[in-house]
Amino acid sequence: MNRLQEVLSHNEQFVNNKEYEQFKTTKYPDKNMVILTCMDTRLTDLLPKAMNVGHGDAKIIKNAGALVSHPFGSIMRSILVAVYSLNAKEVFVVAHHDCGMTGLSANQILDKSILSGISREKIDILRHAGIDIDNWLKGFTNGAESVEESVYSIRNHPLFPKDVPVHGLIIDPETGKLDVIVDGNEHIEKSNKDDLRHSI
C-alpha cells in the first residue's frame, strides 16, 4: 500500500466512525489569534501545547522559517484575511531554535534541484526573467533577527491595522520554552505615547 492509499484507507474509517465530531468548531478563532510559525515537524503538536492553543483557538499559518518573505505574498495575505475577515486580534510570529532555514543558501537547493533533473537552463531563465531566485531561496543567519524582520514586515504593511499587536517569539523545539523577541503590546503603547506627544 502506498502512502496515498494508506491516507485514504484511514480517512474512510475516520469518516465512517464519525471521529470528525470531536473537531467541530467555527472558522473564527476562539482566542482571536493568528500564528505564523515554521513547518518543522517537531512543532506540530508541541507548539499548540506550549502556547495553550487548543482546537479552534487560532489560525495557524506555516511555512519554512516562519518568514514573511514578500509583502504581497500568500503569507501576508493570509494574515490580513485572518485579521479582517476572521476576527483575529493579535498576531504571533513564532520561529524556533535549530531551524532548517538557518544558514541555508540558494545554492544548496538549486544544486539538489539539478540533481533531481531540473536543468540549469530553467534556473538561468528564471534569473534572466528578473526573478531574484538566490534571495528567494536563502535562509537566515540569526533566528531572533529573522523574527524581528517578519514582525516589522507585518506591522508596517500598508494594509495592516496599527492597533493589532504583532508579537515575535522563539520556541525551543525540544522543551517548548518560549522566549519573547518582540512584545507587540509594548510597541503599540510606545506608538500611542509618541502620537500623543506629537499632537500636543
UniProtKB/TrEMBL annotation:
Its cofactor is Zn(2+). GO terms for molecular function: carbonate dehydratase activity; zinc ion binding. Its EC number is 4.2.1.1. Keywords: Metal-binding, Zinc. Binds 1 zinc ion per subunit. Zn(2+) binds at residues 38, 40, 96, 99. It catalyses: hydrogencarbonate + H(+) = CO2 + H2O. Belongs to the beta-class carbonic anhydrase family. This is carbonic anhydrase. It comes from Schinkia azotoformans LMG 9581.
